[in-house]
């Protein structure tokens, strides 16, 4: 690709709008899959599906570290003189990482699969491994598209993934495929990257871009990003697992708390996670003003979050009872505080993206790991389940935010 073919300029409102629309469509498709599964399966079958859905969410969440590292390096390659620099092909790195990750899952499955998957253990392990391998290529391509300002294709890849999932789920309901069909639906979108490359010349051009650094350095940065993304996946996708591990038998109260946590965080964290490419591209463009570049997105998150807190406090209890049944009872105060906790995690996501864009890989990963460990420890406090959940979600992320801000405030070397 020639320099003339490269889109130039900072991240624009148009790019954010494109990804925002794609995020909304993806979220609708995701909730549609969960709805179809809940309607088609009995509660026991849905619980098995839910565990697999969560397991894939955890491993694919870690793979988002490849998106962050790829976005940063492709973005920097647009600004720097490539002469004399080694090159790395991120899509090839993603393929290798995906294959190794899949092999690790298969090799270690005898140690853990029986404890995680109650039925269809072999199929679940195979789908988890193959799905993760495909998703590593998916996130690598997303990073290349984001780094190259190809936001229409970035959004198309997100939507294709989501549409494939809901299509497989709908076919499963029609033909009566049952649990197995929903397991396939969970990972079906992992081929979206291949479909986009086949159908989009622009995506094929972006896929040939290179990072102007050696592969070892690229992998070192990606390793920190994957570690941080994995920790964030535990804190975000795997929070119910943390709650169960630190609380034992959760009972009906635990079910209400888990549902409330999921519902109060989705409006902020789903779009913010999907816009990781936009955020890192923005922070790379503003890398001379690390902390200042955080102000506008942080103010937007806090503003939206404040509105969410008020709405959750005022209308949340009624919405919960009306939408899910009279057995789901939570106070407005609990829902408001849980929404505030979602704001804290959203701010941690922002500071983490800024640290990743500034190549502060160690601080980035340490911040997320510290936040996760702090939240887990706070969940062991001798308080009621609702209270310690709020404390963990509010205070744990603050530890990680502090780590990121200290690193970002230091002069660039």
Describe the structure in brief.
The chain has 413 residues and is an all-alpha fold. 81% of the residues lie in helices and 0% in strands. The chain has helices spanning 13-40, 43-79, 90-116, 121-147, 151-175, 179-187, 192-199, 201-207, 215-236, 239-247, 251-274, 276-285, 292-324, 332-357, 361-378, 385-409.
Can you give a write-up of this model?
The chain is mostly helical and 413 residues long. It folds into two domains: 1-222, no CATH class; 238-413, no CATH class. It contains 16 helices and no strands. It is globular and about 65 Å long. The chain starts with 12 loop residues before the first helix and ends with a helix. Mean pLDDT is 84; it is low at 1-9.
List the topology elements.
Elements: H1 13-40, H2 43-79, H3 90-116, H4 121-147, H5 151-175, H6 179-187, H7 192-199, H8 201-207, H9 215-236, H10 239-247, H11 251-274, H12 276-285, H13 292-324, H14 332-357, H15 361-378, H16 385-409
| Topology as a string of helices (H) and strands (E) | HHHHHHHHHHHHHHHH
Helix-residue proportion = over 70%
Per DSSP, what share of the residues sits in E-state strands of 2 or more residues? under 5%
Task: Compute the number of structural domains.
Answer: 2
Protein name: Integral membrane protein
Main location: membrane
Keywords: Cell membrane, Membrane, Transmembrane, Transmembrane helix
Organism: Mycolicibacterium komossense
